[in-house]
Design goal:
Length: 420
């Protein structure tokens, strides 16, 4: 199989997606710092545009430092490099996010006014616009405001509903800026919509493993690792969007499972092994993104081990799930991950061959922006026959799409092989 599609996709993804973040004059503007930081950590290039009122609540310098890009707020700043500011930002954006968005700004937007930089940028852009309102509950419930919000929605603007709770004025009600994770989730639903993908996995059953495993040492302690499960959950969500029936076998995580995915929660490597092996004959694809503990205590203490000067643990191997699947696979496509700290490509090549994989996704845990817990990854795809494609740092949702591109290609190649 020639990995040309992965190579081309990797080049296309080398530039991170650009978010133009609009900040308006709400007390919730201070949350723009956390929002900017979260977006940058997820691999986005963030360019902040502030209204003059917003600068009264949070300084441009704060957001410039966090975003690592200039912050814009003057409508008539001298042009830089012959670029008109609001046109340049409008063309650069993959998505415009306004958070927080005041009632005044939303109503201004609905009227088509462009009397300051942020409104002019939105009026000029062809990128999707996502708005996160923040205001007094009375303002939010006002029928004039509701009409203006629905009017914008009718033209394709997206909204993140505000939360209900205690507001800055001391009252309680709906109007508080949505939590940062909720805003980011909404952003990624817009920027990676389901219809971006062909339904090329329709009719396929895909089993994905995610997260760490925990091997109990005594009733209160266990051996584990730093895996967050983010890569496996991103794969499950992307596979479901592409039409697959998805089984997600996950160790302990703090993540919400994607909609319409069968979640099987496990704790230990033995439990994950049993869950995967039981379902293996009935699936078309297995993607092993879980970080399974290689060892477990030979004996679990019945009571809490007391503090002592030294402690010797006797460990034994856990079941090798991937090796079992590689030995017993028939029609299935098998994808593994190789998270390494040294000799990354060499170790990954050996794993690809030894475990009879169709594709291995290798990453060096020592690289900044790669590995466990983070929202980005830096990987190399390795294929049987020695071909390899190195990809730049990217959001794990983007990477999930590229991995599934390769899975779809492998399934097509296998289907064509059996036809011939």
């Amino acid at each position: 199989m020639q990995p040309s599609r992965a190579r081309e996709a990797g080049k296309a993804k080398s530039t991170p997606k650009t978010i133009v973040l609009g900040v308006t004059g709400s007390i919730a503007a201070y949350k723009a710092a956390e929002l900017t930081s979260s977006l940058v950590k997820r691999g986005y290039s963030v360019h902040v545009v502030m209204t003059r009122a917003a600068t009264k609540f949070i300084t441009p310098l704060t957001l410039q430092t966090i975003s690592r890009n200039p912050v814009h707020f003057e409508m008539f700043e001298p042009a830089k490099d012959w670029e008109i500011e609001h046109i340049s930002l409008a063309q650069r954006a993959d998505l415009v996010l306004v958070a927080p968005a005041t009632a005044n700004f939303i109503c201004k937007l609905a009227s088509g006014l462009a009397d300051e930089l942020l409104a002019a940028t939105i009026l000029a852009t062809k990128a999707p616009v996502l708005i996160a309102p923040a205001m007094n509950a009375g303002m939010y419930e006002n029928p004039i405001f509701q009409h203006q919000m629905k009017f914008l929605q009718s033209f394709g603007y997206f909204f993140v509903e505000p939360d209900t709770g205690r507001l800055a004025c001391g009252a309680s009600g709906r109007g508080r800026l949505a939590d940062i994770p909720k805003i980011i989730h909404a952003l990624e639903q817009v920027i990676y919509p389901a219809n971006d993908f062909e339904k090329d996995l329709t009719g396929r059953r895909v089993l994905i493993t995610a997260g760490p495993t925990r091997e109990p040492l005594d009733p209160v302690r266990f051996l584990s690792n730093y895996s967050s499960g983010k890569m496996g959950f991103a794969l499950a969500e992307a596979a479901r969007k592409r039409g697959a029936e998805v089984i997600l076998v996950s160790g302990p995580t703090n993540l919400e499972p994607p909609d319409a995915v069968e979640l099987i929660a496990v704790q230990t490597a033995e439990e994950m092994f049993n869950a995967v092996v039981e379902r293996f004959p009935g699936v078309d694809v297995v993607i092993k993104a879980a970080a399974v503990a290689d060892f477990r205590p030979r004996v679990k203490a019945e009571s809490k081990i007391k503090k002592q000067e030294t402690l010797v643990l006797e460990l034994e191997r856990t079941p090798d799930i991937l090796a079992y699947l590689g030995k017993h696979k028939k029609h299935q496509i098998l994808v593994g991950f190789a998270a390494e700290t040294e000799r990354t490509l060499k170790n990954a090549e050996e794993k690809l061959s030894r475990k009879n994989l169709d594709l291995v996704v290798a990453n060096d845990l020592t690289e900044e922006g790669a590995g466990f817990e983070g929202d980005t990854n830096i990987v190399t795809f390795l294929y049987p026959g020695g071909a390899a494609v190195s990809l730049p740092k990217m959001n794990k949702k983007e990477l999930a799409g590229l991995i599934l591109d390769e899975v779809a290609k492998l399934l097509t190649a296998k289907r064509d092989h059996f036809r011939n």
